[in-house]
Design brief:
Elements (H helix, E strand, L loop, with lengths): L1 H21 L2 H10 L5 H17 L4 H12 L4 H22 L8 H12 L4 H10 L5 H16 L4 H13 L10 H10 L4 H13 L4 H8 L14
Helix pairs in contact: 1-4, 1-6, 2-4, 3-5, 4-5, 5-6, 5-7, 6-8, 8-9, 9-11, 11-12
Length: 233
């Protein structure tokens, strides 16, 4: 459950908070050095990572946000460098898988997918989803990544998740609202409904191009039933 909340926060923080930080990072690093929280070598290593990220065309905002968080918490400089390296690997892997013929992934889609990799989605799962429909847009594949990460976080059976995202990608019906499928699952569980029932109904709805709202109706719920937080059933 913590993973779900962290992913939602990261999505907003990465896209907006980090943008404001990018222009002040030099000052923040110098301040940390002056306070004795960073060595010159550590600050240089952090700057080197930021330069690599810029050259590779990865979204800078999540990285500057991570640095700012580390500095504010006085995390050891080498630990910040390691965290940046891990993020870079995940974001680069995400960007490669999001690339489609004729489409360049939007930075937001890279952030969504990269964060999903760091919070539950496996690289194998992403690679497999990327092969399902080569014509799926980067945005739809990012939606699939987040949907699967959320379902993984609530221990939804992997085989059923695979079938659901497969249907959504094959029929190109996986709209952003489907990232909230985990909420439907949680409401269904609270009502005593088996996961298999939700999975079957969701796969059918995606194959027929139906909305998440239509799925709710099929299961006997309303939109209000899924608006509470994940841990408040």
């Amino acid at each position: 459950m913590i993973a779900l909340l962290c992913l939602a926060v990261l999505g907003q923080w990465s896209l907006f908070g980090g943008m404001a930080l990018a222009g002040t990072m030099d000052g923040a690093l110098e301040k940390a050095k002056a306070a004795g929280h960073l060595t010159s070598d550590q600050a240089a290593a952090i700057q080197d990572r930021l330069e690599r990220i810029r050259i590779e065309g990865l979204p800078a905002a999540p990285f500057t946000a991570k640095i700012e968080e580390g500095l504010s918490k006085r995390v050891h400089g080498q630990a910040i460098v390691r965290a940046l390296d891990t993020m870079r690997d995940d974001y680069a892997f995400a960007a490669r898988n999001l690339e489609r013929d004729g489409f360049t992934p939007d930075p937001q889609d890279v952030v969504i997918t990269g964060d999903s990799l760091r919070l539950g989605l496996t690289r194998q799962e992403l690679s497999e989803m990327a092969q399902v429909n080569p014509h799926a847009t980067p945005a739809m594949l990012a939606t699939a990544a987040r949907t699967r990460a959320y379902l993984n976080a609530i221990n939804f059976q992997a085989a059923m998740t695979s079938d659901i995202v497969h249907q959504g990608l094959v029929f190109a019906t996986l709209a952003p609202e489907w990232t909230q499928l985990f909420r439907v699952v949680q409401r269904a569980r609270a009502a005593g409904m088996a996961d298999e029932i939700v999975a079957e109904a969701a796969s059918r709805a995606l194959a027929e191009g139906e909305s998440l709202g239509a799925l709710l109706q099929v299961l006997g719920f309303t939109g209000r039933d899924t608006r509470q937080k994940p841990d408040n059933n």
